[in-house]
TrEMBL record:
PANTHER family reported in the protein's UniProt record: 2-OXOGLUTARATE (2OG) AND FE(II)-DEPENDENT OXYGENASE SUPERFAMILY PROTEIN
Pfam families tied to this protein: DIOX_N
Region Disordered, annotated ranges: 1-38, 53-77
Keywords, sorted A to Z: Iron, Metal-binding
UniProt domain Non-haem dioxygenase N-terminal: residue ranges: 75-144
Organism encoding this protein: Camellia sinensis (Tea plant)
Protein name per its UniProtKB record: Non-haem dioxygenase N-terminal domain-containing protein
Superkingdom to which the source organism belongs: Eukaryota
Gene3D superfamilies named among the record's database cross-references: B-lactam Antibiotic, Isopenicillin N Synthase, Chain
One annotated GO molecular function: metal ion binding
Biased composition (Polar residues): 1-18
Length: 377
């Protein structure tokens, strides 16, 4: 289903709307106008680059994210829509206004997702020493444990590449590997559809190696808080059961309740830069909400992030026009523009090193600070 949808979208005319080890100290050479605080942040980022990869960072107790009093249902978009134009219209609306939506009719069997949950629970049941032995950290891959002050291990997670390979012969991740590949197909369809709806060239269309995928699996429990952030183009989060969750969107923390067996799709910071600010974004992965009538027991959160290779440069993929008045603003592919597109805060971005950016946002813990601010023009 995902494959046929991709072929169909690939033929659509463009809309008129405009695993590696810890990275070496290779600072970005992209010119950017910075304030003194931004320069200080860059200096700190480069100092972190020079730390040995085995050095652990101090952990800090963080407050749970604030949540809305009532959960909203994200916009429903069907992947098997018989009218591609309606599909793109709905996608553009959700992307430009919210930065997230729920995808239905993805053809991913619900039984496969439940098999992955069972398979993942067996990983979290392993002793801490075995987790570290079987899944050594190769930033951002491997086993991660963000302990709180009581050493409860509330934020254990595993990050795998798209192959979900493992060195141990004692464990099998067959279901996880299949599930990851199926979600990756859906993610590439979303990227293609997003490029058609918003109006930017899809860099994956000619070269699939321009993106890569990480599967992030976390064990949720009451009191869980946001884990590490990692930049991405689109995130796909399979909803196995009824569960409210919080998203850190451009408008702040929002509470949503996706339908069972749907895929909650979040648009990431890379997608916002590609669109030159035309779409909204969600930072990080959804955070389960507990303390109400939802499941209060152990819960596995599975998120596939379609992201970039570490050596990439992040650049806007929508051209800009310099007017006679000295203003710059996005233009459509037919050369047109509108006054509502004109430059302003949150609209334009300069190019930057993905490696520098990913390393910084992964280690900083300022969740309410928008890490893209220093790259806005």
């Amino acid at each position: 289903m995902a494959s046929s949808a991709h072929d169909q979208l690939h033929q659509l005319p463009n809309s008129n709307y405009g695993t590696t080890a810890a990275p070496p100290p290779t600072p970005s050479t992209q010119p950017n106008p910075h304030s003194s605080s931004d320069l200080a942040a860059d200096v700190l980022s480069r100092l972190l680059h020079r730390l040995p990869p085995t050095l652990s960072f101090p952990t800090r107790r963080r407050s749970p994210p604030p949540t809305a009093p009532a959960a909203a249902s994200p916009p429903l978009i069907s992947l098997s829509s018989e009218n591609p134009n309606n599909f793109l219209t709905d996608l553009l609306s959700a992307s430009s206004q919210l930065g997230f939506f729920q995808l239905t009719n993805s053809s991913i069997p619900s039984q496969l997702a439940r098999s992955v949950e069972s398979e993942s629970l067996s990983l979290f049941n392993l002793p801490r020493e075995q987790k570290q032995l079987y899944f050594p950290q190769k930033w951002p891959l491997g086993f991660h444990c963000e302990e709180d002050e009581d050493d409860n291990g509330m934020s254990d997670s595993f990050c795998f590449d798209s192959s979900c390979s493992i060195e141990s012969t004692e464990l099998s991740l067959a279901s996880l590997g299949e599930f990851t590949r199926e979600l990756e197909k859906v993610g590439l369809v979303v990227v293609e559809a997003l490029s058609c709806a918003v109006g930017f060239e899809n860099p994956v269309r000619e070269d699939p190696t321009r993106v890569c995928s990480f599967m992030w699996i976390s064990e949720g429990s009451p009191g869980n808080v946001p884990g590490r952030f990692y930049p991405y183009v689109v995130g796909l989060h399979y909803q196995i059961r009824w569960q409210r969750c919080s998203l850190l969107a451009d408008s702040g923390w929002v509470s949503v309740t996706p339908e069972i067996d749907s895929i909650l799709v979040t648009l990431g910071d890379v997608a916002q830069v590609w669109s030159n600010g035309k779409i909204k974004k969600v930072r990080g992965r959804p955070v389960p909400i507990y303390g109400d009538d939802s499941n209060t027991g152990r819960c596995i959160s599975m998120s596939l992030l379609v992201t970039l290779p570490v050596e990439s440069t992040v650049s806007p993929l929508i051209p800009r026009l310099i007017s006679v008045y000295g203003e710059d603003y996005p233009i459509n592919k037919d050369g047109g523009g509108s006054s509502t597109d004109r430059g302003g805060e949150g609209r334009a971005f300069s190019s930057f090193s993905f490696e520098d950016y990913a390393w910084r946002v992964y280690h900083e813990r300022l969740h309410l600070k928008d890490s893209l601010d220093q790259y806005r023009i």
